[in-house]
């Protein structure tokens, strides 16, 4: 048995993106976005946003709206007329949103799938649909049947080679039978999906009373294809929780970062034989802000003042007073007594106030004895207005002293935070495959943290009593980052529930006033190095007040630097799950694309894609086992295909740079409500108890913890896999009287390297690829005698027949087959 390190054949990314730096969707100057009007009366209105349903015309509009700073919820879904989803907006922002051309559908954020709902995306894993011939104009990528809450659904995804044609638009019609031996019928029109100007496929999800055996898809241009229906998540083994003695349900409510970290350390103390704490080296910026005051409204005479010290370190003790003195022809002056700053406003020869906002700001910056760090006119104002005196001293504040209603009791520690990683495994010496679980990159996503903590609790509590758990702990090395964004998470708990990013303020003066304080920070999942917004990929913003702000440079933030440090120090980490909410998607690479031409980051080889799908089916089957929540096939696959382009995400970096199987998970997916016939979506902070059959933080925590536990079993099985894959050419070697279509098949997910020119196959040889993304393997149309030479490598690095592709020897036992074309 020979194993090799998994190799990812990458495009030369720096070369690829170097010539298209200007072709970015969200790049450039800060666009017009949310309303700039935010007077003192609005400063404390931290939760004055509400979700509204919106429809965007397509991916280009999505990029523009996100780059403008609007807060778009997850759970976006494709519809024939564009993209529907949610936006969190204030009343003023709602007007700006509609001015950008976004259609507002209403405040009812639930949604329903009709009989002709938007479709989705399929798999490249095991399924009944067979590869089409090389000349087929219509291909069925997948046809899946699943049940949930007593209702059956059929999901179909098909592609036509003429799908890009838009004048006239090529249509597709779907028919299905009612079981074996019944005729096709129930004709329906399928939805055409175009993303960033590129035809993707046609797809639909339908409610059905009977499970069909076959489907038929017909193109308006005459192509026809038939396929057999497969089962999606219908034959899952029982979850670990099915064992009556298995312990679960440890987390009884949401946890802020201090509680999460405290429990992680306690677990390490309680179970020292299988757990320890690893401290990440880069401290966060901290739950702290400079103290501020906005004096004089929002006009040309307004001045924004920011302390030099953090609020809790003296900034909150500073007062600023604009004082009018009697007399005429008086110079502008500043007096400082302790932490009281008095600005003595200047007067002209007629005794009229004469100091402008720009002049007062300059005086505060230069003459305040170091108390004031920043002072400037309001936003984009030039500060040409004459400043009026204040009614008395104005106190600066960091706005962190007021707690949100319903937030947990207790003061939040100020200052930088060292993030602890809970490491669980019997053999923590690098000999076992490592699994990194990273939760709460996005602050407002509370369920990912409880889901991850619940998984950790299950590992340590069941280690000595449950055989399957013991195998996980003995055969894997698990790293839990229970909150990768503690500063933002605390801000979400205690100040602004909808906070997404960290708390680092990179904004220049025009966006640095306190009215913008809920819009500062970096989206940590846009701050990585592969397929980043800095390289021209879509889905990240250069605007410091956008919720997808990518940061001033790649890896600018300590939180993202820590992830890279961790996987470089612990090179046994081979699997990663970045846990997010909400939406129910499970995805991987590619995660980003260049909008002009929809050029994605490199797609995984077909073997890796198949392994991702195989793993996803195992993970999602265990989610369904809890309360029949189905993550539907359209919500699984490459994230740029399933969700949207997210430039600079962590998954892309870990997979392409380190060869780590990196998943992203949007937990809290839609749950089917049989009483209404609707699919009801979740939220970032659903009621903890809620409706246990529908939206519930507790139920989501339990069901998705099932899935994480199964991911550990996937990793353990991967580490124990020492069996070589097998492969074959179909049809096999032989004599054929005319051209023949052939393809490869493998016994398990594996990458095939092959040649047809008589040379020996190596790791540099062509790889067997999909016919098209999210489709089965390509079909070779052989018209003359051809010899195929090949070998396969599975996801664990095992090579078929113990072949060594790195050197030639007498045991060149690669596979070979000759297709002989003979004329009659």
From TrEMBL:
Pfam family, one: Peptidase_M14
Active site residues per record: 666
Domain Peptidase M14: 376-708
Xref: InterPro entries: GH29D-like_dom (IPR059177), Peptidase_M14 (IPR000834)
UniProt cross-references to PROSITE patterns, sorted A to Z: PEPTIDASE_M14
Entry keywords, A to Z: Hydrolase, Metalloprotease, Protease, Signal, Zinc
SUPFAM superfamilies: Zn-dependent exopeptidases (SSF53187)
Signal peptide span: 1-29
Cofactor(s) essential for the protein: Zn(2+)
Family to which this protein belongs: Belongs to the peptidase M14 family.
Protein name, entry field: Chitobiase/beta-hexosaminidase C-terminal domain-containing protein
């Amino acid at each position: 048995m020979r194993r090799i390190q998994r190799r990812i054949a990458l495009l030369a990314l720096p070369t690829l993106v170097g010539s298209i730096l200007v072709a970015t969707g969200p790049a450039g100057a800060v666009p017009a976005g949310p309303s700039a009007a935010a007077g003192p009366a609005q400063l404390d209105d931290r939760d004055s946003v509400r979700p509204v349903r919106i429809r965007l015309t397509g991916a280009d509009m999505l990029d523009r709206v996100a780059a403008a700073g609007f807060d778009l919820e997850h759970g976006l879904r494709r519809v024939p007329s564009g993209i529907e989803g949610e936006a969190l907006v204030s009343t003023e922002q709602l007007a700006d949103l509609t001015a950008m051309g976004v259609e507002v559908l209403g405040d009812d954020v639930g949604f329903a799938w009709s009989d002709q709902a938007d479709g989705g995306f399929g798999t490249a894993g095991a399924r009944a649909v067979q590869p089409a011939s090389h000349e087929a104009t219509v291909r069925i990528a997948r046809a899946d049947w699943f049940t949930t809450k007593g209702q059956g659904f059929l999901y179909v995804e098909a592609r036509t080679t003429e799908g890009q044609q838009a004048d006239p638009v090529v249509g597709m019609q779907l028919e299905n039978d009612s079981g074996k031996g019944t005729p096709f019928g129930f004709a329906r029109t399928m939805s055409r999906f175009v993303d960033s100007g590129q035809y993707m496929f046609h797809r639909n999800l339908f409610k059905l009373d009977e499970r069909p055996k076959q489907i038929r898809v017909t193109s308006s241009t005459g192509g026809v294809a038939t396929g057999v229906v497969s089962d999606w998540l219908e034959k899952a083994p029982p979850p670990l929780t099915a064992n009556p003695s298995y312990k679960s349900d440890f987390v009884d409510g949401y946890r802020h970062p201090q509680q999460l970290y405290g429990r992680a350390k306690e677990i390490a103390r309680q179970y020292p034989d299988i757990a320890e704490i690893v401290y990440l080296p880069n401290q966060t910026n901290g739950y702290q802000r400079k103290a501020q005051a906005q004096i004089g409204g929002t006009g040309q005479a307004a001045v924004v003042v920011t302390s030099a010290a953090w609020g809790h370190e003296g900034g909150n003790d500073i007062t600023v007073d604009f004082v009018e003195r009697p007399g005429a022809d008086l110079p502008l002056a500043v007096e400082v007594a302790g932490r009281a700053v008095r600005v003595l406003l200047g007067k002209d020869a007629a005794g009229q106030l004469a100091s402008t906002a720009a002049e007062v700001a300059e005086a505060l910056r230069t003459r305040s004895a170091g108390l004031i760090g920043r002072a400037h006119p309001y936003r984009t104002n030039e500060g040409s207005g004459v400043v009026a005196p204040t009614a008395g001293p104005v106190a600066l504040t960091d706005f962190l002293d007021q707690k949100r209603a319903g937030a947990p009791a207790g003061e939040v520690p100020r200052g930088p935070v060292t993030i602890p990683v809970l490491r669980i495994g019997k053999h923590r010496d690098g000999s076992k495959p490592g699994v990194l679980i990273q939760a709460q990159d996005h602050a407002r996503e509370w369920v990912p943290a409880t889901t991850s903590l619940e998984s950790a609790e299950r590992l340590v509590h069941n280690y000595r009593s449950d055989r399957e758990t013991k195998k996980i702990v003995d055969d894997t090395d698990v790293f839990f980052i229970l909150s990768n964004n503690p500063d933002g998470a605390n801000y979400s708990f205690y100040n602004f529930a909808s906070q997404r990013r960290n708390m680092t303020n990179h904004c220049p003066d025009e966006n640095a006033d306190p009215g913008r304080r809920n819009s500062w920070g970096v989206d940590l999942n846009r701050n990585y190095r592969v397929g980043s917004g800095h390289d021209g990929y879509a889905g990240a913003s250069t605007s410091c007040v956008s919720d997808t702000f990518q940061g001033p440079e790649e890896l600018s933030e300590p939180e993202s630097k820590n992830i890279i440090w961790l996987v470089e120090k612990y090179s046994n980490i081979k699997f990663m799950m970045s846990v997010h909410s909400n939406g129910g998607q499970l995805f991987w690479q590619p995660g980003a694309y260049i909008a002009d031409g929809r050029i994605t980051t490199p797609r995984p080889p077909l073997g890796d894609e198949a392994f991702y799908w195989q793993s996803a089916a195992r993970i999602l089957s265990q989610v369904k086992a809890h309360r029949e929540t189905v993550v539907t096939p359209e919500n699984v696959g490459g994230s740029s295909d399933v969700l949207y382009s997210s430039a600079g995400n962590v998954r892309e970096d870990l997979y392409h740079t380190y060869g780590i199987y990196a998943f992203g998970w949007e937990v809290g997916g839609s749950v089917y409500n049989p009483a209404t016939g609707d699919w009801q979506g979740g939220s970032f902070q659903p009621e903890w108890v809620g409706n246990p059959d529908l939206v519930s933080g507790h139920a989501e925590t339990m069901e998705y913890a099932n899935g994480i536990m199964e991911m550990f079993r996937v990793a353990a099985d991967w580490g124990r896999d020492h069996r070589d894959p097998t492969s074959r050419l179909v049809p096999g070697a032989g004599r054929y009287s005319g051209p023949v279509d052939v393809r490869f098949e493998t016994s398990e997910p594996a990458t095939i390297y092959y040649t047809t020119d008589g040379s020996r196959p190596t790791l540099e040889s062509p790889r067997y690829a999909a016919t098209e993304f999210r489709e089965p393997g390509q079909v070779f149309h052989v018209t003359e005698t051809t010899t195929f030479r090949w070998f396969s490598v599975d996801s664990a690095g095992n090579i078929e027949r113990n072949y060594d592709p790195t050197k030639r020897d007498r045991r060149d036992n690669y596979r070979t087959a000759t297709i002989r074309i003979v004329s009659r």
